[in-house]
Amino acid sequence: MIKILHIIDFLCLGGAARSMIAISKYSSRIDNKLHHQVISLKKAHPSAIDLAQQAGMEYLEYQDEKERNEIIASADIVHIQYWNNPQMFSFLHSELPPTRLIIWFHVSGDNAPQVITRDLINYADFAIPCNPHSYELPVIKQLKPEIRHKKVGMVYDAADFERVENVQPQPHEGFNVGYMGSLSFSKMHPNYISMSAKANIPEVKFILCGGGNIELLKQQASELNVLDKFDFRGFVEDIASEIAKFDVYGYPLCEDTYAAAELNLQEVMYAGIPPIVLPHGGVKKLIINNYTGLMVDSELEYSQALEYLYHNPQERLRLGKNAKEYASQIFGAENAAKQLNPIYHKLLETPKRSRQWSIPVDGNLLDEPISLIDVVDIPTQFYGAKTFIESLGDTAPQFVSNLTSNDTQELFKTDEIIAKSSTLLGMGEGGIIQYLNHFPEDGYLRFWTALILEKEGKIKDAFGQFIVAINKGCNHWRVYWYLAQVADYLEEINVMEQALNNLEQNVLNFKPVQQLREKLNQLLLAETELLNIKFTEINYLIFPNWQSDEETLTEELYNLIFSLAKNSPVSDSPLSKESWEGSTLVIDTTGITEEDANLFLSGIAMNLMMEEELDLENTLDFALINNLNDRTWNKLLPKITAKITLENENQDIVNQLNLEDLVTIEGNGNNYAIFPDWKADQEELALEIGEVLMNLSDQENCTLLVNLNNVDQEEVGLFFSEIAMNLMLTEDIELSNNLQINFVNFTAHQWQRLGGLIKEKMTINYEDLPDN
């Protein structure tokens, strides 16, 4: 019995695992002396274990590296199922026992991060690209002819055609375009929805089978008002029942796709469904244009190809028939096994060998090209970044420069390139974030992740990653500069100040730092001024329009301040009086200097003292604010009891701010108050409140303050909505926008200090007045 041990990163139901299982099944059928085993570097999926065992594979578990290496040592051949990921790459860097080693590449191999590197080929006894495109890559063509002939051969990824053996077209309404596989933009074309929707085909339905960015795809379809054209099925095991409904197979992938010998494409071709593809990755060598399918060069051509096959059913039949015949002869696990078994037997004629990463098992080390990463001493704390770079070969030199260069201009340039990394390189399989998850202590992987997150607008996430990157040793001064900028955006003043302090110590005459320092000083000044405001239990906010007629504004502010400084009718009636405590009127001074505003208010105060004998000293404080930033507003607004609306109001400022959660009171005194007893019978209480709303429905610009007495505001809001709906249905009264209803949790003292702004406390039978 010859033991063939397959090693895979994750034994699941994905394409690489299915290919491995299928080829093992047919390999053993052709040669029953070959016994196939498998270990998974990650915890295997139970369904995949079952599928492997049904195919005759032996699934082996191990507890640690020692036990794993014992399994490897006992195998006659080790067969690596390769795509770039940190688990597999770390495994290849580990110390392994002598073995005969095959690496089967399940990626196209020419786009980062899914790259077939020279080190990988040198490490293997035999290297197998899984499609013609990969076999023709420079990394293989540039091998010495004798080495290439000895250790490289092409074997297609192996589809098990038993899954689609008996597919028969099912009659259906409309025109169905199928898609199976990953719905992530690291593989799928990012404009799949729009380019599909542009096809002018009546009753078209795009059937998508697979997992990924389903909600994002639905959102894109909704924005184009074409959601009804797309049917998202999720993961589908019984693909034959879905393929039977397809008229064509639309499979446009992203430009930097790592797609290689796509099993789903092989399966639909075997079932006689004509595909439409873009010439990206290994896919371009899987079909013969205009013979087994259509290969198009643009989004527009893709839409046109869909229309062409819709209008030409005979052409669909011709292409489908050719596709089926071609797939039967070229693709499939049985054909692949016929190619792979001789490779196994040839390798068995050679002895097991020890191997070490970056040292070729064949050829001469002196013949190998030297990269910068080989000669520069990289600190061990950045081993994760170094490993990631090695996995990319020579396809992404920006990372090498970013890790090793001392040239500031080059560092900023490579930062920008990294920030613009594709979805696949940044967040896809084998990308930066996946390596970061495997090497969480690596500061450079943190830094690169932060650059990508910031570019994508995920500023808060980038902020956290920049901080951790610095703490993990990636502390070049420019990292502090990036941190200072995102801290500025998030208004994290303390972090911004610390970052700028570091920059000023380590880099001289960097003008952007000086500019940001000036902005920081303004922010700190605004916060200091805010801290100097004498906030009390009662704080009002107004936005005067200082450009309005001076006499009119003076009169309005005079009346407002007078009202705030005297007893309220509320406190004169059923509510007991308390001793006066001062309140604060916060005044926005946009459009006037602070000096002029103080003179303006001093004049009003003097007139109140002379005409009304009203001294504001112990009753009302003025606090002037101007040009506050968002952070300062966010600190100020929770302290505000109510915003008072003026007739002469600066609407530009009011509209810029989010004041929806503030209680609003009419400055002209057209305000009413009720104090419902929420424990009363709800029907009776609703009738009482309905009467109040009816009486106020004809008022011009009035406000009704409803005392919550600490009950749930959302429930009260629903209660009022029902009352308003009932008034409209039974009394034909529709409450206008002139009536503003505010739900408040004012204390008795706050009610008292509303002063003359309350026109009337409207009495209802079921009242619950605030405690004294």
UniProtKB/TrEMBL annotation:
One of its GO terms (molecular function) is glycosyltransferase activity. InterPro entries: Glyco_trans_1. Gene3D superfamilies: Glycogen Phosphorylase B. Signal peptide: none annotated. It is an enzyme of class 2 (transferase). Keywords: Glycosyltransferase, Transferase. The keyword Lyase does not apply. Residues 165-325 form the Glycosyl transferase family domain. Pfam families: Glycos_transf_1 (PF00534). Its EC number is 2.4.-.-. SUPFAM superfamilies: UDP-Glycosyltransferase/glycogen phosphorylase. PANTHER family: GLYCOSYLTRANSFERASE, SPORE COAT PROTEIN SA. This is Glycosyltransferase. It comes from Cyanobacterium aponinum AL20115.
